[in-house]
Specification:
Number of helices: 1
Strand order of the largest sheet: 3-4-5-6
Number of strands: 13
Largest sheet: 4 strands, antiparallel
Radius of gyration: 16 Å
Shape: globular
């Protein structure tokens, strides 16, 4: 059956829908909400069978972030952290893009690392996740503080 992300309001619930517009079947999943409750992020089916990350507000409705993006956290200001094949940040103080590349731009040597984002603080400046170090063959917890 259908699984649909929704939000509660003072007057009831709002179904967030999906991008497939099938009518009879809806599939979306919320994965995070901003601290003030205005922004919801998650993933939803598209008409071509792919899954897209989404950002939802009552004003804009469901907006695609991109195919195969998996959002994990969102701030009140709309900074989003999540994963494509690597950890990505959208709208941060360093800009948008691959977290590893953004950290390398700050002078960190990230050679051999693969990063996965799990969440971030409400101000969007601290990201937690998991890193795989190909030099050691080990996974480690990561904590990245953005300037």
């Amino acid at each position: 059956g259908s699984t649909q992300a929704f939000v509660w309001t003072a007057v009831g619930t709002i179904g967030l829908g999906d991008f497939a517009n099938r009518g009879w079947y809806v599939h979306s999943e919320a994965t995070a909400v901003s601290p003030d409750g205005r922004i919801v992020v998650g993933k939803a089916d598209a008409a071509d069978g792919s899954v897209h990350g989404f950002r939802w507000t009552q004003e804009s409705g469901l907006v695609s972030i991109g195919r195969n993006f998996q959002p994990r956290g969102v701030t009140n200001d709309g900074v989003i952290v999540g994963n494509w094949s690597q950890a990505h940040v959208l709208g941060s103080s360093l800009g948008s893009g691959d977290l590893k590349a953004l950290l390398q731009g700050c002078g960190l040597d990230m050679s051999g690392w693969s990063l996965t984002a799990i969440d971030m603080t409400s101000d969007g400046r601290t990201i937690v996740g998991e890193g795989y170090d190909s030099a050691t063959g080990r996974y480690q917890a990561i904590l990245a503080r953005l300037p």
